Amino acid sequence: MSDAPSTNPPGAPNPAGSPAAESADPPLYQPPSSPTPTPPSAPAPTVEAVNTAPVSTAVAGFSARIGETLDPTPHSPEPAGDLTAAGEKRHNLRIFAVANQKGGVGKTTTTVNLGSCFAELGLRTLIIDLDPQANASTGLGINPRSIESSMYDVLLHDTPLEDCIEATAVKNLFCAPASLDLAGAEIELVPAFNRERRLKAAIEAVSEDYDYVLIDCPPSLGLLTVNGLTAATEVLVPIQCEYYALEGLGQLLRNVDLVKKNLNPTLDLSTIVLVMFDARTKLASQVAKEVRDHFGPVVCRQVIPRSVRLSEAPSFGQPINVFDPTSRGALAYRDLAKEVSGVDG
Ligand SMILES: Nc1ncnc2c1ncn2[C@@H]1O[C@H](COP(=O)(O)OP(=O)(O)OP(=O)(O)O)[C@@H](O)[C@H]1O
Ligand SMILES: [Mg+2]
Q1: Ligand positioned closest to the Cα atom of 105
Q2: What residues are in contact with ligand 1 under a 6 Å CB criterion?
Q3: Is the pTM of this model over 0.90?
């Protein structure tokens, strides 16, 4: 079935802001320092408005506002299962935190569909749903109300991660689901021992079983996201090719930096994916160019188009490569999976 331009509302609302950790530790949440903050109630501009808006206003000075640069070394993916010099099989577990504190930018859509396309390439993939909205779980056909244990139990009750992992309808694809009580974890984790490293410890116990782990982070920079960033080897940031998409990115980068300095020195912001790209708008191309100019080779060549089929798939509990395998969205995520993994299917 073909795709049509989407007129979807812009995603689920953010859950209540997560509290900053109260302790002697350096605060990982800083109030935004962007000189042009976006009012939370600002209506998303229509396509028409975007087309007539001064594009330069939306993107100009992005580099200055972000004020950070990344190591421009191109990321060369190492396919899982390479042989070592000694001829032994090397297990390269890659753990991606899919993060962006902005809500509704395509984190979950990218986690589910990229994960499913990794699985299609034969890579054993685990999706960890770290968002109390549980969108990744439902998008994979798992009902958060009918599961025995969830990521809440893993993080708060030391339940082994293995015990909460569910198989999905896709071969090689597994999910550690969220449940609604995960919302309380932001607060319940505050006094917990090793509170920032609980997910990391949980993943270590299953690390031999997977080639890829994708962590779907909530749209906040609280303790759940900090757990995701601390457990990850890499950060994947989806960026919507739209007005306001770049606001707040500097804050995310500063938080990634804080986690690197304090908790996870080898964390690598390796992958930026441009999503919801609408080729009909000038703004989308302008945003894409600006992001590429600023971030260089960590921005994936493959962009994800805006596509109605991508927004419909979750309500059927299916990733796009199952729901509509020949749609533009499926082809795009498939190519993205090849680009990121280096595996040519
Ligand atoms: N490429 C796309 N084309 C069309 N719709 C999309 C696309 N990507 C995501 N969407 C839709 O946009 C909305 C937000 O996407 P998604 O839930 O993936 O964002 P999110 O960043 O995970 O949101 P949250 O911050 O609330 O967790 C959803 O309705 C989703 O179906
Ligand atoms: Mg989400």
Answers
A1: 1
A2: 6, 8, 11-12, 103-109, 131, 133, 135, 219, 275-276, 304, 306-307, 310-311, 314
A3: no
CB proximity list for 328: less than 8 A, separation 6 or greater: 2, 3, 305, 307, 309
> For residue 333, what is the enclosing H or E element?
helix 328-341
Which ligand 1 atom minimizes the distance to the CA of 304? Answer: 1
Query: How many domains is the chain built from?
Result: 1
What pLDDT is recorded for position 72? 41
Does residue 324 fall inside a structural domain?
Answer: yes
pLDDT of residue 88: 52
Give the distance (Å) from ligand 1 centre to CA of residue 108.
7
In a domain, 196, yes or no: yes
| Domain membership of residue 114 as a residue range | 82-341
Task: Give 9 Cα–ligand 1 centroid separation in angstroms.
Answer: 9
- Identify whether 269 is part of a domain: yes
HSE toward the beta carbon, residue 214, CA cutoff 13 A: 31
Gyration radius of the chain's alpha carbons: 19
What pLDDT digit, counting tens, does each position of 245-255 carry?
788 788 899 99
- At residue 133 the predicted structure's pLDDT band, cuts being 50, 70 and 90, is very high
pLDDT digit string, tens, across residues 66-83: 444 444 444 444 444 444
Q: Where are the beta strands (DSSP E) in the chain?
A: 94-98, 125-129, 166-167, 173-176, 212-216, 234-240, 268-275
In a domain, 239, yes or no: yes
Q: Please give the average per-residue pLDDT across 131-151, as a whole number.
A: 96
CATH number at residue 238: 3.40.50.300
Q: Is the pLDDT of residue 8 over 80?
A: no
